[in-house]
Amino acid sequence: MSTRAWIAGARLPTLPAAVGPVLMGGGLAWWAGRFEPLPFTAALVAALFIQIGTNLANDYSDYVRGADTAERLGSPRVTQTGQLRPERVKAGAALCFGLALAVGVYLVVRAGWPIVWIGLASIAAGVLYTGGPWPFGYHALGDVFAFVFFGPVAVAGTYYVQTLEWSVGALWAGVGVGAITTAILVVNNLRDRDTDRAAGKRTVAVLIGRRASQLEYTALFAVGGLVPLLGVLRGGWPHATLLAWGALALAIPALHTLWTYRDPRLLNPVLRATARAAGLYGLLFAIGCLA
């Protein structure tokens, strides 16, 4: 039971959101002739540990703040359901962040102080999303942080640890995957809008309502489609990077459900499809860079 509980707490369906940006950074480094397998692998492992640590930290913090209750519409949380004690979940989050820091030591040795700040900021964002004295996820800033850290920061940071150079192209590529990753949070918060409002959690969806959240989700996927097109036309990216559009196909049934649902529980498959789209977007883009 404990092993299954930890797997549930890790929220494996969310991990593509961490993998996709790293794959894009690796693909761009390959296209530039600067791919380095060891730094790339270290960046991927660190990103996964940070994502799992963030999931556990959010599980713990939402529980102690009273945001996760029996009325929750999404998949059950391990703290709220009693599968794991709160202190164990908190310790698990700390362990994951510690492992990410351990991997990060190698990246810092290779790439210097910029990686220190990126790593510490990423971990702080994971903890403070629902934790700390002023959790920004409770104050309508979650979308912004998701976009920044799962988009430009992750892609450009992965590119940097391989090439030791910053790239405007990598930052632009991060806009695309960051938009789709933010869409995951949009649909999550749209589903939980009523329970979040009752718990005093002021997400963007709580503030702007259903229709505007639907428009936000749609616009984010449009941005994801625009980025590779402009990268090919203006940035000289390989035409094959347009393969990333294949991930947008997952959004077609998801968009239909998002615009027509009556029961918020119907958004759970949309959430999973959006997370898969984020990972597939990064994978297909990276494959396109190999061409």
Your description of this structure?
By secondary structure, the chain is mainly alpha-helical. The chain is 74% helix and 0% strand. The protein contains 13 helices and no strands. Helix 2 packs parallel to helix 13. The radius of gyration is 18 Å and the shape is globular. The relative contact order is 0.14. The mean pLDDT is 95.
| Overall outline | globular
Q: Distance between termini? A: 45 Å
Question: Which stretches of 5+ consecutive residues score pLDDT under 50?
Answer: none
Largest sheet: none
* Overall helicity: over 70%
Computed Rg: 18 Å
Classify the beta-strand content into a percent band: under 5%
Task: Describe the structure using short key phrases.
291 residues; mainly alpha
Would you kindly provide a brief summary of this structure?
With 291 residues, the chain is mainly α.
How is this fold's topology laid out?
Layout: H1 2-10, H2 16-31, H3 37-64, H4 86-111, H5 113-128, H6 142-150, H7 152-163, H8 168-191, H9 193-198, H10 204-234, H11 245-248, H12 251-260, H13 267-289
